[in-house]
Specification:
Length: 480
């Protein structure tokens, strides 16, 4: 897990600035049509550690989403835009499919759209063969290989998949209906006593927990590492849902958690399709959900190319803390929504289906379906909280920001009387959380920080300081 480093004079908080800036950039994009490329439309990604990941290729379907012309895995080890692919891969292969095999047992990848990983270099594929297996592979420095593990999930098409730190496997039916009550199935980890992940004639365990979802389309799932917080993309409702509980005792929906795309949240710029939430990822510290948002494999005109993005959502409050604007990044660097770059920084053809995040670098990995590539995104905004006075102050205080009104940035000073957990956040007039500026342990002292409101509209906002049991709030005005 990426640690927040506290120095005596400077505190750096690289992962709590989201709503202020959008200082995201690509570290690299895998080159298409090159020795390092995936070779075809890329629908999913699962990352183990920095620059070690697996991509899933799923060719564009004709009429049936789960009948595709290509379906295979591509592994990367110590990757960047030009190197890292662990095995040779033909470019634009004709009908290439990955085959899971163990002894005489074989299952071919079929209509698989998402993958997940565990802490043992294993990749779990939500497959749509006749028995809708979860197929398990292993990434090595020499390639992606089958394991002896698979699990049949039933008769329904499955789409989203996730694995928690204990190894519980979560899989979600693509379509919910009133005729069933187990759209979400949770399977016990590989190696659990009594499970048949690797038993010949087995592979048919009952789910340890299920969740009943209403009619609709579901294309994303993620969980906290301990499995107590479960998030699902209710794609047809354009919403993110949260469930709380655990994989053994079950889950209940958190009715107070509400994140739904606004009606005006559309593609625009002559693109087409209705964007919604797709693949998801969760970062335990500080508890954020990363949600891929796009018009799913929509081709017409520019399709969703002018829209594709990743929302960063607070896992407790459902506040939209930031947006990784992939389409905007592509356009700013190339002047086009459907052009890549030659420098390994732009995938082009923004078509976001999936997202994953790893905790060491807090880097975000995603893909471009029609750009045939994997992208690595890093946050380039570092909030600095400067300590001005070393002496122990007499009282807790929050000063008026200056300048005020301001555009686009202002300075906020605050005083911490005793060692305590400090939170400095910005809210709109409706009381909605808009930005978390500080959320760390501080020693006594006087501090100041700069709030950059470049992406905020004109209006009145409140900034609130909490330190232990002390709370203070003030008003500020953004004038553009």
């Amino acid at each position: 897990m990426k640690k927040i480093i506290l120095f005596f004079l400077i505190v750096t908080v690289p992962f709590t600035l989201f709503a202020q800036t959008s200082l995201w950039k690509t570290q690299y994009v895998i080159f298409d049509n090159a020795d390092n490329g995936t070779g075809k439309q890329t629908s999913g990604v699962a990352v183990f550690s920095p620059n070690i990941f697996v991509a899933l290729v799923t060719g564009t379907p004709d009429n049936n989403l789960f009948t595709v012309p290509n379906n295979y895995l591509v592994g990367y080890w110590d990757a960047d835009s030009t190197v890292g692919r662990v095995a040779a891969q033909e470019y634009s292969p004709d009908g290439q499919y990955e085959v899971w095999s163990s002894s005489l047992d074989e299952v071919t990848l079929s209509g698989a759209w998402q993958i997940a990983n565990d802490d043992n270099n294993r990749i779990y594929v939500a497959n749509n063969d006749a028995n809708h297996n979860i197929l398990v592979f292993e990434l090595t420095q020499f390639g992606v290989a089958s394991t002896g593990y698979r699990m049949e999930t039933g008769n329904e098409n499955i789409f989203a998949i996730e694995v928690d730190a204990a190894g519980y496997v979560y899989v979600v039916d693509y379509e919910g209906s009133d005729s069933k009550t187990d759209e979400v199935k949770v399977f016990a980890p590989i190696g659990t006593t009594g499970t048949t992940w690797d038993v010949i004639g087995g592979h048919n365990d009952a789910a340890v927990t299920t969740i009943d979802l209403p009619p609709g389309i579901y294309q994303g799932v993620t969980v906290s590492s301990d499995g107590t917080q479960l998030f699902i993309s209710a794609t047809s409702q354009r919403s993110l849902w949260k469930f709380v509980g655990d994989p053994v005792n079950g889950y209940a929906k958190d009715e107070n958690f509400n994140f739904t795309l606004a009606e005006e949240d559309t593609v625009g710029d002559n693109g087409s399709g209705t964007p919604s939430l797709l693949g998801l990822a969760y970062l335990d510290d500080p508890g954020y959900v990363f949600a891929a948002a796009d018009s799913f494999i929509n081709i017409g005109n520019l399709g969703g190319y002018p829209y594709g993005r990743i929302y960063v959502i607070d896992g407790q409050t459902a506040a939209n803390l930031d947006t990784i604007d992939i389409a905007g990044w592509n356009y700013d660097r190339t002047g086009s929504y459907n052009t890549g770059s030659s420098d390994g920084r732009v995938g082009g053809f923004t078509s976001v289906c999936d997202v994953d995040v790893e905790s060491i670098e807090s880097a975000v990995y995603t893909q471009t379906f029609y750009g045939w590539a994997v992208e690595k995104w890093i946050y380039d905004g570092i909030l600095k909280v400067e300590r001005e006075v070393d002496a122990i102050p007499a009282e807790f205080a929050l000063e008026q920001n200056y300048p005020n009104p301001f555009n686009p940035s202002t300075t906020i000073e605050f005083t911490v009387k005793s060692s305590s957990s400090v939170n400095l956040s910005v809210y709109n007039l409706q009381g909605q959380l808009m930005a978390v500026l500080v959320n760390e342990q501080f020693s006594p002292g006087v501090y100041k920080t700069v709030f950059d409101a470049t992406n905020f509209p004109t209006g009145i906002y409140f900034y609130k300081l909490t330190a232990g049991k002390n709370t203070m709030q003030k008003k500020m005005l953004i004038a553009k």
